[in-house]
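Sat 14:20. Reprocessing the chain from the morning session after the first attempt stalled halfway. Input below, unchanged.
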Amino acid sequence: MFQSYYSLLFVSLKARIQQSVPEILLVDPEWGQIDNYDTAPAVSWPCVLIDFTPSDFSNENQLVQWGDVTVQLRMAYPLVTAPDTISSQSLAFYELEAKLYKALQGWQPTDENGNAIGEPLIRLQATTEDREDHIRVRRILFTTAFEDDSAMPINNNVTANLDINYYE
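Finished this time. Tokens:
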């Protein structure tokens, strides 16, 4: 169905997160949904927003490349303001992050037919974003790699029915 590696990877990640971490109520592509400081974001909490940045490529041959892809997950939820719940809410968020990590670390993304589409994911980094609003965001980076042969032309073999008469 999808041709783009990033589309395939997103669909695979979304399914894995929804299956393994059902407490995450929204898994979407990252389009800045939680970065509009003037209005309340149109997301369900907690959410994970996915982007692929950066991706580095090297040539294997003329039309085939090896891609090293960084998967960025922004896991977000609104801050609580009641002082007596801050500790328990923070700990619950860290536990959710640990569950997300366990679901993805070493997991190999697949297409809709179960075929591997890249190398197993490996966590690179986890940081907390410094924000001016009341949203807590953990930025978790994973890496994967894949072989991109999508630029290769498709060759269709055609069999010709020839009747060659050989005369001596």
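The longest helix spans residues 86-104.
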